[in-house]
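Sequence in, structure out.
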Amino acid sequence: MTNHWDEKFSNKEYLYGKRPNAFIEEMLPKLDAGNVLALAEGEGRNAVFAAKLGHNVTAWDYSKVGLEKMSQLAEEAGVEITKEEVDLTKSTEWPKEAFDIVFNIFGHIGNLKVREELYQQIKQTTKPKGSVLIEMYSKDQLSYQTGGPKKEDMLCTPDEFLTAFKDFKVKHFFYGEKNRQEGAGHNGTSHLIQLWAEKPAE
């Protein structure tokens, strides 16, 4: 079966550009260097940024083409990233309490049930006092047409994050409009949800 993301990443240009996402660019420098897991990381712009800050970065993505372009971008930046081909919609054994920071930037997958299972995996792989950073499009994004899925059930609501991470300390939460200029893929005023949540100490 053809991988939809292999096709999207097949051009020489980077679909979402080479610069990091603005939320990651703002938040990551506030956190101590550690082990980072970048989910649905595509062509690697955020993983490379994290590595340049001194983090030990593992990046997961389902697209072989995306992972190849991630390698090229890491080489350009002079950093190393551990890259793994992982389908987040399928159940896999995640390492327990292995990462200081886990982030998912526009890694829209499945429906709410699939995402709820993903959030539980994210929570258990995060170390105590570790951070989770998420930026996603809200369901309101359908009327903006500046990026993201075209299926409503793949878009997110504030409640799903606040419910999933209710036992974490919410350090930052945002729901509303932001401008995103990220290559051809995300371009213009968008309706976003942002979360920075910290896992309680044991």
